[in-house]
Amino acid sequence: MTSSPGSSSSHPYPRRWRRPPQLITTRRWRLAIPLLALAYMILALGSLEVDGARLMEGLSRGARFVQGFLQPDFTSRWHDIRQGLIESLTMTLTATVVGVLVSIPIGIGAARNLSPRPVYMVCRSIVAISRSLQEIIIAIFLVAMFGFGPFAGFLTLAFASIGFVAKLLADDIEEASASQIEAIRATGASGLQLIHYAIQPQVMPRLIGLSLYRLDINFRESAVIGIVGAGGIGATLNTAIDRYEYDSAGAILLIVIAIVMFAEYGSSYLRKTLQ
């Protein structure tokens, strides 16, 4: 039986707009919540203690920094800049490699469709702990433990890489094709054979892309954690700013931007080639 053009079977979706259900049905609360939010914003702005004189002084310093950024000096502190870049690149590469290698077994253990529940809970806890702390907080703690230098930065970036890569790798494994996993499992394959033949072909391109993306992130983070003494180009940048050498600071920022752009375009090209 053919349905008529105006019948409901030819229009599976509603043709008339309906107001969505209200989350707050009480009119008193609908008026009170915006007023409370506005009062909170007013109190929050009042707690900032904005000082006009301090604001004008900060604007003048910012103008000097912008002027130094527009006239960068690459020669005066080139030795320190080169040393900081070598430390940052070394920390970035080694921390990414170590972090990815450690995150692979943790990511496999954190996949619900592969691991028994005790292993799953332990690996997920490791991922949650790694992701719950910002790199700058980890760097402060590790600098207090191991002292100033790139070793604390290496440990910071490696620890952060574990949580990042393991979390996304575990999610990719859980979203892998179940039919392919069951087909390999039905042949009597062991756990390692299951991972090699059923999981690896599906997640390897994604893992390579995540590793390259984390490499990019680690270099940018190396410039941040260096400010708290974890070595790298961030320490050189912090020293230049403390000495009011804004032209050298501008040169450092330009170098960081150039390296990040090169890594971004290079990783995008490599991901397209591999996929």
Keywords summarizing the entry:
0% strand; 10 helices; 275 residues; 75% helix; disordered N terminus; mainly alpha
Number of strands: 0
Using the CA coordinates, give the radius of gyration.
27 Å
Secondary structure class reads mainly alpha
First CA to last CA: what distance?
48 Å
Number of helices, counting only DSSP H or I runs of 4 residues or more:
10
Compute the average pLDDT. 82
- In the predicted model, the low-confidence regions spanning at least 5 consecutive residues are 1-9
Described by strand count, sense and barrel closure, the largest sheet is: none
The run of helices and strands is HHHHHHHHHH
Protein name: Phosphonate ABC transporter permease
Transmembrane segments: 29-48, 93-115, 136-162, 249-270
Membrane topology: Multi-pass membrane protein
Domain ABC transmembrane type-1: 85-265
